Amino acid sequence: MPNWSQERVQPPWSKPHTVTLKSHEIYDRAAANGGSDRIERHAPLSLANGHGRKAGTSGAHAEQDTSSQGFFTILNGSASTNGYKSPNEWKQELKSGSHVVSVRDIKNGTENFKVTHPKHHAFARYVLPVDSVAFSSQDWPGKNHEKGEGDKQQKQDESDSKKPQLDTSLEEKRFHDKLVEELNTIRNFQNDDGHPEGDLQLLDGDALMQLASGLCVEDQITPDSWVPRSSKLLRLTGTHPLNAEANLTELFDAGMITPTKLHYVRSHGAVPQLSWETHKLSVYSDPPGLVYAREWSMDEIAEGNFRVIEIPITIACDGNRRKEMNMIKQTAGVNFSAAGVSTCLWRGVYVRDILLASGLKDQPDTERWYLNFEGADECSEGTYATSIPLMHAMDVNNDVILAFGQNKRVLHPDHGYPLRAIIPGYVGGRQVKWVQKLYITKEPNSSYYHIWDNRVLPAFIKSKDDPLAVVFHNHESTACMEQTLQSVICKPAHNEVILLPNGIANGIDKCYTVQGFAYNGCGTAINRVELTTDGGKTWKYCFKRYIPKPLRNGEKHWAWIFWSCDVPLKDLSNSRELAVRACDGKMQTQPEHMSWNMTGMMNNAWYRIRHVITADPQTGNVMIQFRHPVAPGSDESDWMKPDPEDVQSDDNKANGDQRVLSLEEIAKHNSTNDCWIIIDNKVYDVTDVLSWHPGGAAAILAYAGKATVAATLQYKGIHDNCKRFPSLACDFGTQHLCELDANSKRDECYIGVLSNEAVGEMKKDAMRAADALAKVKKEREDFALQPDLFTSATLVKKTEVSEDTRYYVFSLPKRANGEHGLLKLPVGRHIMLSVHFDDQAVLRPYTPIAPVLPEEEDGTFTLCVKTYFPTDGGPYPPGGLVSNYLDCMNEGEEIDIRGPEGEITYKGRGKFDIEGKEYQFEKINLIAGGSGLTPHWQLIHAVLSDSADETAISLIDCNKTYDDILMRDELQRYASKHPKRFKLWHAVSKAPEGVADWKYGEGSLDQKLMEEYFHPATHGVATLLCGPPGLIEKCALPALEKMGFKKGESSSAPFCIMPGPSNRKGKSKKGRTSGAAVRDLSNVDIPTVLDAYVDEINDAQDWEGVVHLLCRMFELPAAWKKIHAGFSDIQSNLDVAFRKYEGNEKVMGGIVGIWARMCVDSILRDKLFEAGLLNKMLPLLDIRSTRIIGLQALSTVTHHGGAEIRCEIAKHTPKLLQLMEEFPDDYTLNELAIITLSHAVSAVLTADDLDMKAIQQLDIPKVLRLTMQNVRRPAASYYMLAHSLDFLSHATLNCSREIKAIPSIVNLLVACLRSNELTDRCNALGGLARLTNKDSEPDTCGQDLQKFMATLQRGFPKHLSDLLMAYDPRRCDTYLTLQTTTTSRSVERSRAS
User: Fold this and answer.
1) 287 preceded by a cis bond (ω within 30 of 0)
2) Exposure of 1249 by Cβ count < 10 A (0-12 exposed, 13-18 middle, 19+ buried)?
3) Who has greater pLDDT, 1331 or 625?
4) Cα–chain-centroid distance for residue 125?
5) Confidence of residue 158 (pLDDT cuts 50, 70, 90)
6) Residues that are catalytic
7) What is the 3-state secondary structure (H, E, C) of 735-763?
8) Which phi and psi angles does 1173 have, rounded to 5°?
């Protein structure tokens, strides 16, 4: 029986000090004089309260310790008589509604511990302890329940280690020496005593290497808006909750101690907003009496009478490598690759000591007690809790601790701040974060997550609906406890390429160092790691690398090891795959194959990587490209592929027609009343789901109407292909199965699929957006302001300009070289501020008034903000959220910023970039309302600071009173100094009294005032607006439109009205259904009809939009049968419109696009070509704006065209070659040209009646050269590569001489013999065969099948058979081709059935 009641808590580490005692005479004299011998305890920090120091403050940074003072004194310099409400007071008022509570009440009544005690808070942001909607949901007299300012929340959202070939004996000696060295290292292992080195650090030193400082944009609409996270983490379940891992290569390269920002994250809900100063650990037992119930503060735990240890420990998710298992059959859980593992330095106190100090009783021999951990996180199924055997935690050799430090700083919020459980050797699912309860029971934990998560069920249980699933889930034998033996290959990395030398002389016998990591559970050492290149027939020994002190308690190994193995390049190239396995101190080794289980956990089969051999497109040299079993994140370039049956369509709509939807249509449905989302290229109307969705409506609305794959990733990460885990009653006899089946509810919302064009556009848009973001990030990598991260800025000065207006000066983070930070905000753009509440961040746009010009950068930026104070009888009593928050900020507090935001950039001297298009204006009209002046101030200051900028500006600044005018003096100085370039007029509702130089009168903004002071709507004039909606929408816009101005193209522009012609002549007409008859335009003036659409056509963003509008205008049917029936009328209408609008490039291109789509049908194609379609298409190639649509039409026609039409198009090859040479950097143009030439030129080269004269006119050498030039592009698409290969293969038939003149073509054909695609291999093989056909001898031998069969029956000669077996018959091309053919046929048969 354990004798815990007699054991003692381990004392803290002894600390040296310099305290000395005076002689006894001095103390006697003090006592005689009435003195006291009582010694007051030292309280080094203001809230220590005489109970010892805060975590990690033992004497370090003493200059930052403050004298003990009250909270309100710290904030306001006064005692508690300041009148601010305590948390209990404002919470009660908010609950009762007795008084309207504002942001000021809460901000001033809530201490910012991040400022007062920075040692306990890393990059985590200060959060107001209330939901942002709490203010607007209050009731007050006169409330009309319309949206006010408080409701308008803007949601933004190593190099190869090569060794020369040595003599065999020398190589063996080298191996022997390394082995002896490794054995000596193991023999001399040092034991880690766990003594912490120094105090927990502030945000200095290596903070930026360890921690992420920015806030991710995607988190701002979630409760985790305040948590800093690295953009390098790959999100596996969408935006929220966060489940993420690092790229495997980056994780390995980071070293044996993982930086905190790269540590994998596994969460079930929002990160709880906890504080060191207020967090308590509750210790108790159920039933009572097993331990005394009490609470422990963080100071008592971290700086009390407990021994603190700090040791490196590896933690791995029990779902690590689940993504591989999902390729066999879908499981339930997060799609971790092999990077769901990390090793950090964890600092904490023994759980054993906490329990002993709480009076733990002795466990009887006849009972088994359990230690339960419960977190503070609120998950969808309750708080996260689990249990482990108490005996394990009470064994001091197991180092079970409550950790409060990670990598020498306080815990990161994602990893359990301020307190978490660390159980070395156990799976991650048992190491509870944000621990708030520690209690003893006589039964295992009964919470949802202990029963239904972190389990391995027998493989025969395929579904949670299986009756036996309930029994096994409640059986403690299925619980994942100790970690499993694991090893992983990290280098070669996924998609890493190694060039192969030619022959021994060039280094084919040189070595590449394969590297990786391995780890184990229960503290057992890893004795051996082995690598195989031949499927396990032979194994190579891998050398191990350890942390400096790998031993703990004389025998435990809690941290991973790194391993390496030198493999000759020839072995790499000849291997089919590389595989690794580990063997531990119990002589257990990893299994060869994985064993599938329903939860996808504990996969520790051999880790295998494979490669393909290809040719370098630039040099033609042979190279190896490696692929891991599963790729990082959402990348799908891995060698394992999911079971086709597991990924087949689940929309259950195989019968009948499906509605095909365009992105334009989907984009219209993006509100709470009409919400469509895209999942797996299918469209769902989820409007009815918003009200009851467990994750809240915001989780869905973030993807409403958007063409993004993020919704698919989030859905798949949260919902698996099975029903959710059922909720159970206490006994096994009753099951209360959850009625909510995510997939069935999703299917109920199904409305259609994306069009092929939309699918392609989604992919292109994603690539374009990623490229654009990468470009901006590269340009701004040394600047504080980032486009995709929120950066903290510190308030350094606050100046009162007027009763309700303040100047706020914020300092920016310093750059890596120590110099002051740079804002680098383009003129015309703004920043986004983020204030954090319990439920989410509230975002507001602001434009700094300084710096504006590069020479004004000084490491700070200044905001001019008008505060909308709370009012008892006003229209919105709580006042403005963000403006009041700013007004309550104290110097030293932080705010978060992101940018640049906006679509307008002033580039100087009249040049503007508006939504990616350049404009030149000579004169600018500006309308400002209130604080809407600040964006205009940027422009005014930039223009007037440049003496060479002749842009004329006229500003009307609208305010209610004289005192409301912002920056009066600055504006007046500019108006006086530059009267010709800058005209100023103040429009105020009431003229000021007693202002001698007031010359602006009084009155509101109207058309008459604008006509008097604005530049008229002529060419080169623009009007920019920024102000409250009432001023802009109800007053300014109607008047400007009457004056001849036209609203800007995009509503996303913050203040833009572009000049132009008057309103459109017609309105859009709703499209007819597919069953509509062809519109009869025989008696209609088609140009007149088109007039109603011309403006819309000219405004269309892309050619698909133009074609869509024209189809709607002509009311073209969707069914082919109806197009055939009405072809004469359709063709006549299109032809008339084409001729009448010959000068309108968009109309011409759109009509050609319609004709090209009709050419998909062979009958219609032949009719259109007889009507002269080619002569209408070719002129478009000479016009810049229609060149792409012309090439798209040609590629479509040649793709679907017959031999005769293709040969006709081939006659225009010189024109296509000219375009390719003229625009070599236009990737789209070159791709479309190659696709067209592939079909057209191949038709000429393979014609039955070969026309050599026609072939000579094609300039085959130039066609071949330009084709290879594009094939070498790194970003060449498979679509273009496939067409190029098809053309090159056909060209070998009659152009062998020209082919052989370009060796890279032959190299490409050879490389394609190793392709995974059967079509590519056949094309390459056919091309090579034809290439040598003319030079080969004729086959004079007839084929005798009987002799052939007799030869096969005799078998190969032994020496050939031995060679074949040594090479592996499965690797020969014949076998691979037959295998691919068999697989393709079986897939086709399954599809047919």
Assistant:
1) yes
2) exposed
3) 625
4) 21
5) very low
6) 830, 846-847, 1026
7) EECCCCCHHHHHHHCEEEEECHHHHHHHH
8) -60, -40
